[in-house]
Amino acid sequence: MTQLSDTILAPHPFGTEITQQQLIENFQQCKLWEDRYRQLIGLAKKLPPLADELKQQNIERSGCENRVWLGHQPLADGRLHFYGDSEGRIVKGLLAILLTAVEGKTPEQVVQIPLAELFQQLGLEQQLSGSRLNGVKSLINTLQEIASTYIH
């Protein structure tokens, strides 16, 4: 069982300083794919790199072109803190979007969030390659599986 702690592992600005509403507004202003691409790269730069000791094999996710780590931490108040990193800038930006949507939510809230719809809203789904889209879907499934393990 994971130790409950108030010390946040791998803090990041997503879901707190950067909200889902801000993301939607920023991406809706993008008319061209290049603009959305720049938004993704900007998000990737705001996601701090994970410390090497957090890049454990048990949180490395397969199914993506780039190496991706997606970890979580149950907080004392019942909410979940998610954190992650990727070697690829685009994937890291996509991960940042997911973190924005799920950060600080209860497990019950996380399983209810229509994460795939968020990518449609942001105008990203049609721009991503099939393998990237599969990687995103794999991360979405992982987030929801993690959350569901905390629902009794």
From TrEMBL:
Keyword Plastid: no
InterPro entries: Cysteine_desulfurase_CsdE (IPR017763), Fe-S_metab-assoc_dom (IPR003808)
Enzyme class, UniProt record, top EC level: transferase
UniProt keywords, alphabetically: Transferase
EC number(s) given by UniProt: 2.8.1.7
Taxonomy, superkingdom: Bacteria
Keyword match Transferase: yes
GO molecular function per UniProt: cysteine desulfurase activity
Family: Belongs to the SufE family.
Protein name, as recorded: Cysteine desulfurase sulfur acceptor subunit CsdE
Source lineage: Bacteria, Pseudomonadati, Pseudomonadota, Gammaproteobacteria, Enterobacterales
